[in-house]
Input
Amino acid sequence: MRRVRRAVTRVFLVAFGVLIAVAALECGLRLVVPAPAFDPTWGMGSSVGADGQASYVPDEELGYVPRIDGPVFNEFGTIRNPYPVAKRDGIERVLFLGDSVTERRRIVDALSVLHGEATCEYWIAGVGGYNTVQEVRFFERYASRIEPDHVVLTFHNNDFFTTPVALRDESGDLVVYAGDRPTHGLGAWLYRNSRVARAVVDWSSERGGVAEVESRAGVTRDALARLRDQLAASGVQLTVLLFPILNPRDRWKPGETRSREIALELFDELGLRSIDLLEPIERSIHDGVDVREQPDDTWHPNWEAGRRMAQFALRHGLLDGGVMDDRVSIHADPSRISLASGGQQVLTIDAGRHRAGRSFLVLGSASGTEPSTSLHALPVPLVDDGYFQLTLAQPGAWIRYDGVLDENGRGRAIVAYPAGSDATLGTLHHACVLYQAFPLAFHAVSAAVALELTR
Output
């Protein structure tokens, strides 16, 4: 009997000691950790809409989803818009897929203003807190039904990570979703009032380090590959926008730097058409332009940053289709040069004002225009020969041009031969190619123009 009493006493003392320790920890956290500014029932804002119903609901596969066919999201899982469901001839249906950056539409709205809506519809399927794996699954289940012509996936720097989100289930308990990790069932009162309970959830779903980025690279790659293959099978174009941290690079955390490195590696490995948005953000920060929606928020751009990134994306062919485009015109004058007397051919390029500031190459071939040469899947109407490789490897060396379209989307190049040149007689062909340098991608090409070399 004494042994039983001693055992009970020890258990009681241990439990009491644990209780005292937890209470002390709770007091310490309350002194150190400020009270959350957001509704504790939802890690990213209120989970209740204006109609009193939940804006987001738990989901077994995705963790949570926005309320489908509610006041914000329609039956297709896209934010409500004025476009008809039936597709219209001559109008490209562009679907923007992503997380809260896409949902808050800073970049998308700027695109609609800069590019216009005469030829494009801008559908948005952005869900706050989602990572790439969730975004692809959400597309497969809901947004794919709008049958887009072009899917633009915004890959956020934090898309390898998981965002813990707390939602009330039907019984009123809080379910904390932490990506692909186990969920935690907590009472609403405990989660709302206990800093220790919050700390346990945050610790168990800790995010943002190099190890987590690397551990989730595989599942993220699989999701990207699946999206690529599904869209390719349907003839739908895919473009990935790589979104940066809104901080100078020297202030990025190791996990943020590693996230960018792995993302670029995956895009290259999978052959994805991508546009890196780091350059306009770095330039803006260097120029002293505020790019953040909130002073301490390095994840969400303000309107000015959205405009600058949209402008950059358009200049790099976001809505150009990424294929041969007859709007890139090239005019050659004259079409013939006598090597005896010498002369020069002026190539005038017009790619359209929406491509102002884009980089371009002028490539040539001494062997004709067929068969064409593929540059990253873009067919260039020039035969790959020694002259082609020379103009590709040494741009501006044999043909004079600065390589950047002016504010009207125009450029000029000069092919010159001095009098008495000993070049081989025959016909050269030249074409203009629009491209981005990093990650390397070729977006549009002109027709080929001829230059006949005579005696």
Notes: The longest helix spans residues 2-32. The longest strand covers residues 426-436. Confidence is low (pLDDT under 50) at residues 37-52, 181-188, 322-326.
